[in-house]
Structures are given as structure tokens and as C-alpha cells.
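Worked example

This section walks through a single chain of length 227. The input is the sequence exactly as stored; nothing has been trimmed or padded.
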Amino acid sequence: MIDIHSHVLPEMDDGSRGVEESLAMLRTSAEQGISVVAATPHFYPEQNDPKKFLYRRALSVKQLREVWEEGLPKLLLGAEVAYFEGISHVEKIKDLCLEETNLLLLEMPFSPWTERMAKEVRMLGEHYGIRVVLAHTERYRCYKKAPVWDELLANEVLVQCNAEFFSNRWTRRQARYMLEKGEIQLLGSDCHNMRNRRPNMRKALQVIGESGCRMIEQNCRELGIIL
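Given that input, the structure is written out below as C-alpha cells.
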């Protein structure tokens, strides 16, 4: 199983504070049956341009590789890119896709979505061949307007939900229903640390069950994510 959304890289964002915490997070993920972890630190355009972000990410990965341990999950490098006006006109944004894929993990605004936003997302595909993965989509439920949401889905936007959506007793039924209907394609922990936002995939995988896990694994294979 792959964790498609995490903040395990040291000192990149509000995630891991250092290599020891990163190692602890990765050990915990391995113990929960995760074989691949996508490292997706936050990208905010007001803080970095893609070139600077990739330089910082490379330094962070180097720190982690220097203390790497056998048995840890494989790392795939990417980013959680915050939506911004004009994103579809920044060619270098494609460099933030999950490595070896055309998948871009995109964090939408926590405000009502507009047709302009849907157009920007569509143009990412038209301009650069990017396929957008909406990060932790369950958090946007109150912001999704039906026409805009329908347009996004029509442009083959993928849906990533967090493990907590499945493990929470109040939302697990809805989460399983969405997965069975094909409305959720990818799963992530969105883990940030070893305190209040630890890797938490085990309970979600138990709720999803064997058939649901096979569905997610098949999605990953079809999308070119190596397992």
C-alpha cells in the first residue's frame, strides 16, 4: 500500500522537525504495512518559486538519506501545491509532480470554489499534461459547488482522501460508500509529526478492507505509481 500524501521530509514545512522525527514517522508507516510513502511538502508560491523549492527539497532528502535505515518504505518525491491564481501559466509547476508521474497533488482553497478555479485546473492538463490529484478532498465538502465539482470530475481530476476520513466513526460510512462508487482513488495519511498528526494508515486500511485496498492498489498501478 502507498501513502500518497505525507510531510515526512525534515525541516521542509510544518511537518517533520528533523531527521529523527522523519525516521520515526517512516518506521511507523512501515509497521502499518506501507511500502511506499510519497513525500509531499507544502509548496506556497509566496514563499518559494519551484526552483528554490526543489533545491530545498533536495537538501532535506540528502539529510534523510544520510541516516537511512533498511526496511523503511520507498520514498517518492512530490509536493502539496497550494492553488493560486495563475497557476496554469507557471510552466515549472510540472516539476512539482510526483516523480515518475504526471500527478500533481493540489490543495484547493478553503473558500467557495469558482468556475475560474476549475478552468485553471483544466488548463494545467491542457498546457502541461498534468493530472491533478485533489488533496484531502473530504475537507472541502462545504466549499464544493455542484457545477464546479462536476466540471473538475469531467476533466479527470483524481480524489485523494486522508486516512482519518475512513477511521473516524462519524465519516467512515460515507468514506466507504465513496470508495465503492469510485469517487475516491487515492489514500494518504497527511502525517506531519509524531505528536498529534502521526502516520495513521493502519486503522483506515482495516475499515477499507481487502477489496478496498485492492481497488486503491490497482488505481496506483494504472496511474503509473510504482508499488
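What to look for: Residues 201-222 form the longest helix (22 residues).
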